Amino acid sequence: MSSTGKTVLIAEDERPMARALELKLTHEGFKVTCAANGEEAVEALKKSSFDIILLDLMMPKVDGFGVLEHMKSEKIGTPVIILTNLSQQEDEEKAKTLGAKDFFVKSNTPIAKIIDYINQQI
Predict the structure, then answer these.
(1) Which among 17, 31, 53, 111 has most CB atoms closer than 10 A?
(2) For residue 1, is pLDDT > 90?
(3) Residue among 52, 106, 104 at smallest CA distance from 82
C-alpha cells in the first residue's frame, strides 16, 4: 500500500462498476472521487486535481471524449486511463489522440489488473 494519499477520479456511469473500483482503490489507500457522468467529471476537474483518472467513454450528458476534449482545452495533464466497452480500434485511437494514456476494455479486463496498473503508474 505505497499509494497512500494518491487521488483518483472515477468517471463511470455504471454504478456497480464504479462502486467496485472505488472499494478496491480505497482499500489500496487511494482517495477516490466518483462522477456518474461526464458533466460531473468536468465539475470535479474544476474543483480538484487528481493523480490519475479512470474514464468511461459512454456516459450521459458529456461522454468520455468530451471530458478528454475539456481536459485538452484546459491543459489538464492528468494521466487518463480509458475503461470502456467500446472495443473499436478507432475509439482507442481517438481517445489516445485526445490525450488518454491507456485503454482497457472493461469486459476483457479484471478489476485487479486495473488496480495493479494504477499502482504501477503513480
Answers:
(1) 53
(2) no
(3) 104
